[in-house]
Amino acid sequence: MNISSAEEESAQEILIPADIDWEMLDKSKFFFLGAALFSGVSATLYPVVLVKTRQQVAQSQLTGIRTAFSIVKHEGYRALYRGFGTSLMGTIPARALYMAALEVTKSNVGSATVKFGIPEPTAATIANAVAGLSAAMAAQLVWTPIDVVSQRLMVQGSHPSCSSPCRYVNGIDAFRRIINRNGPKGLYRGFGISILTYAPSNAVWWASYSVAQRFVWGGIGCYFRKTDDENNDNNTIRPDSKTIMAVQGVSAAMAGGVSALITMPLDTIKTRLQVFDGEENGRRGPTIGQTVRNLVKEGGWLACYRGLGPRWASMSMSATTMITTYEFLKRLSAKNQDSLM
Predict the structure, then answer these.
(1) How confident is the model at residue 300, as a pLDDT?
(2) Do residues 165 and 248 both lie within one domain?
(3) What is d(CA 246, CA 274) in angstroms, rounded to the nearest whole number?
């Protein structure tokens, strides 16, 4: 794949490895290695997600660092992984569904847009956005019930005013009690707003990632063009694997920050819908309107951005880790390793 180093007037080209589409992957290796790699990534980032969740349901305003220290002080280090087992059980099938939907959609939409005569950079951005949207919607079918259960476990141990009064022994107990109390619908509480949160978030992220990559590669091309020796007639730049991973990581962090900022209010509302049991109206859960009114009453409209710091950090770190892991996974799973360069 050739990317122009800056604007069209620049004569240099950056040669990076060709993208690996769905047809080029060994599917069994792709899903097996993906489950192992992403389980490790989830374990690393889980404490940040837990802190963010605690902040979103808390009625008092504490920074992410103070919240983390408070959890460790009063509940011990193990509390940072409360609900992780349940979350991991959902991560594996949800990630498999996400990756399959992402790659199939990206491959098909990318081919279709190019056939319509759309320029390759624009086609790649559109394909990434549509793929992110469809992948998020597919994964939420699995992830929402796991999210509801794991978030209930995450907030246990916090101040009573911050969480559901129910106390669960483990994920299975939480699952059983939610079913008994609310039926299967209880496991899909917040499903609609989860789609409204994660589908646009993923579309924005993948589109931003595509644009950010071209922006970063363009900057690298300009740098090499300006510092190139006058006697050097070679106008082709061949970045090594470390440079490629660094560009992917920086681009992912940029995209993650943009996505976190745009979708933060929806994520806060979604978390509260999934955690609180709605004591105000009996057995029914709180409505979106009630949730928004309570947030505004507690801290104004800025309360909708409670937990932004940890979510920004989590999404940026997660995006950087996930995309470098994901690209590495695709190269490990390619059927023909010799055709990657």
Answers:
(1) 82
(2) no
(3) 36
